[in-house]
Amino acid sequence: MLVALMAKDKEGALEIRKANREAHVAYLKASDAVMQAGPFLDDTGKMIGSLIILDVDTMQEAKDWAAGDPYKNADLFQSVELIQWNRVIGG
Fold first, then answer.
1. Which residues, listed in sequence order, are joined to residue 7 by a DSSP beta bridge?
2. Backbone Cα Rg of the chain
3. What is the sign of the dihedral through the CA atoms of 66, 11, 21 and 75?
4. Model's pTM, two decimal places?
5. Structurally, how many domains does the chain consist of?
6. Lowest-pLDDT range, 1-10, 16-25, 61-70, 82-91?
7. Neighbours of 28 (CB within 10 A)
8. Which pLDDT belongs to residue 90?
9. What is the CATH number of the domain that holds 75?
10. DSSP 8-state secondary structure symbol assigned to residue 10
11. Most buried of 8, 40, 50, 68 (most Cβ within 10 A)?
12. Burial grade of 17 (CB within 10 A; 0-12, 13-18, 19 or more)
């Protein structure tokens, strides 16, 4: 099952994001569950959140993955949504 993780950063948290980015990217790369990932950007190109597409067997597996994300552990996010997603176009 595909799950979209959509996270929005806390206001003014860019420095937290930058300080934990290396660990976050390493976590993404080490996981077989991550299909696609990248930051949301504001109108100026500043990172303000994350979109990650996970390929997991259960929603609990997606929740467990999200709980281990270094960004979550750094308390970067204002909100996180995990929503089952159906890919129609793209590979």
1. 50, 80
2. 13
3. negative
4. 0.93
5. 1
6. 82-91
7. 17
8. 85
9. 3.30.70.1060
10. P
11. 50
12. buried
Q: Establish if 90 belongs to a structural domain.
A: no
Q: How far apart are CA 43 and CA 26, in angstroms?
A: 27
* CB distance 66 to 79 below 8 Å: no
Amino acid at 21: R
Residue 91 has pLDDT above 90, yes or no: no
pLDDT in tens, 19-78: 999 999 999 999 999 999 999 999 999 999 999 999 999 999 999 999 999 999 999 999
- CA–CA distance from 9 to each of 15, 27, 39, 57, 90 (Å)? 11, 18, 10, 27, 27
Domain that holds residue 7: 2-85
Tokens 């990932």: give the residue. 37
